[in-house]
């Protein structure tokens, strides 16, 4: 088994589920849906809530408390209230962790659409790397207003921020070179049920999103999806017959891995491949700051919901 230390306040499950004297079972997303035997060791809360960037430097995390249930992520009111209080939060690591992947696929003169920008600094980091034709959208009017003010205060006047629904994109056909989403599609799966056989309503939402992305991409455009979703869950959706893109992927991350998908329009092949098709992921070794991170809580909340269906 694996031994972990965690903060009881951060656990996404009832505290009686974690008995330090018993072995528990948990469906690990990193191990292709196979349960791991883990022993959980509970320690006293630590008031020092910090994240580490790629250089190992500690930075204070500004996220508000995560919701008690993952279903809250589907509620627009939750996001408006959250963005009203929260200045910045990065889902799935910050740009520095996958910058090398972005630079390999996105040219400086590319027109980029970011789906579900929230209060992320992704668009700012892209701009600093010379990618200046950027449009960001979010369903939350609060997020859009605060993002617009933040960008203007920093001098990023060229970046457009619009209130829009990613399931009904208000753009003309074939108008973007690149579409990027980071954790946005994952929200659609919080009530998806069995990941091997998602509920029809969830599939319909995901397909509406993908159809919109495919439509607004130029004939040789690229869709980048940064997600928890493993290839055996995402490929059936990405590979729908109506789409003309090829599928590649890579991974990044430390304690647990995130997937970086590259879907290239106009290059569909019968055997789309992963850059790491047989992903060899090392045994999980999560530290306390990772367990307290909302990415992890978000993922485990979803797994808990799926296990109850």
List keywords for this structure.
7-stranded mixed beta sheet, 2 domains, 3-stranded mixed beta sheet, single chain, S-adenosyl-L-methionine, Rossmann fold, Lys/N-term_MeTrsfase_sf, alpha/beta, phosphoprotein, methyltransferase activity, methyltransferase, disordered N terminus
Quick synopsis:
The protein is of the alpha/beta class.
What features would you describe in this structure?
The protein has helices spanning 76-85, 99-105, 122-128, 141-153, 184-187, 200-216, 231-238, 288-291, 294-308; strands at 2-7, 24-27, 35-43, 50-52, 58-60, 111-115, 133-138, 160-163, 176-182, 217-227, 245-252, 258-265. By secondary structure, it is of the alpha/beta class. It folds into 2 domains: 2-87 and 288-308, no CATH class; 95-265, Rossmann fold (3-Layer(aba) Sandwich). A 7-stranded mixed beta sheet has the order 8-7-6-9-10-12-11, with helices on both faces. Strands 1-3-2 form a 3-stranded mixed beta sheet. The protein starts with a strand and ends with a helix.
The succession of helices and strands, N to C, reads EEEEEHHEHEHEEHHEHEEHH
Instruction: Find the count of extended strands (DSSP E, 2+ residues).
Output: 12
Q: CATH homologous superfamily name of the largest domain?
A: Vaccinia Virus protein VP39
Rg, Cα atoms, Å: 19 Å
Please give the order of strands in the largest beta sheet.
Answer: 8-7-6-9-10-12-11
**Poorly predicted runs of 5 or more residues:** 1-63, 272-292
Assembly status: single chain
**Main sheet attributes: strand count, strand direction, barrel closure:** 7 strands, mixed
Beta-strand portion reads: 15-25%
Average pLDDT works out at: 73
Briefly, what CATH class of the largest domain?
A: Alpha Beta
Number of helices: 9
CATH architectural group of the largest domain: 3-Layer(aba) Sandwich
- SSE-based structural type: alpha/beta
CATH topology value of the largest domain: Rossmann fold
Overall body shape: globular
Roughly how many Å apart are the termini? 26 Å
Percent helix among the residues?
25-40%
Number of domains: 2
Protein name: EEF1A lysine methyltransferase 4
Function: Protein-lysine methyltransferase that efficiently catalyzes three successive methylations on 'Lys-36' in eukaryotic translation elongation factor 1 alpha (EEF1A1 or EEF1A2).
Domain Methyltransferase: 107-229
Keywords: Methyltransferase, Phosphoprotein, S-adenosyl-L-methionine, Transferase
């Amino acid at each position: 088994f694996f031994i972990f230390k965690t903060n009881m306040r951060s656990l996404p499950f009832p505290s009686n589920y974690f008995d330090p004297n018993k072995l528990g079972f948990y469906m690990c997303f990193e191990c292709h849906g196979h349960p791991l035997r883990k022993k959980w060791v509970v320690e006293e809360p630590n008031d020092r809530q910090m994240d580490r960037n790629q250089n190992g430097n500690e930075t204070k995390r500004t996220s508000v408390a995560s919701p008690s249930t993952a279903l809250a992520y589907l509620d627009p009111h939750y996001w408006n209230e959250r963005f009203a209080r929260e200045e910045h939060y990065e889902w799935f690591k910050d740009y520095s962790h996958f910058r090398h992947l972005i630079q390999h696929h996105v040219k400086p003169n590319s027109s980029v659409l970011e789906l579900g920008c929230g209060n992320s600094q992704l668009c700012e980091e892209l701009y600093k790397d010379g990618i200046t034709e950027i449009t960001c959208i979010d369903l939350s009017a609060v997020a859009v207003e605060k993002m617009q003010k933040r960008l203007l205060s920093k001098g990023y006047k060229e970046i457009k921020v619009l209130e829009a629904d990613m399931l009904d994109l208000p753009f003309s056909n074939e108008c973007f070179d690149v579409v990027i989403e980071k954790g946005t599609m994952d929200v659609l799966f919080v009530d998806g049920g069995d990941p091997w056989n998602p509920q029809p309503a969830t599939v319909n939402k995901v397909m509406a999103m993908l159809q919109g992305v495919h439509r607004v991409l130029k004939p040789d455009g690229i869709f980048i999806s940064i997600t928890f979703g493993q290839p055996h869950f995402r490929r059936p959706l990405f590979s729908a017959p109506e789409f003309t893109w090829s599928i590649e992927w890579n991974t990044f991350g430390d304690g647990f891995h995130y997937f970086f998908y590259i879907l290239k329009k106009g290059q569909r092949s019968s055997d789309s491949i992963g850059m790491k098709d047989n992903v060899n992921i090392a045994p999980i070794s999560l530290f306390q700051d990772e367990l307290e991170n909302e990415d992890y809580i978000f993922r485990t909340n979803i797994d808990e919901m799926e296990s109850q269906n």
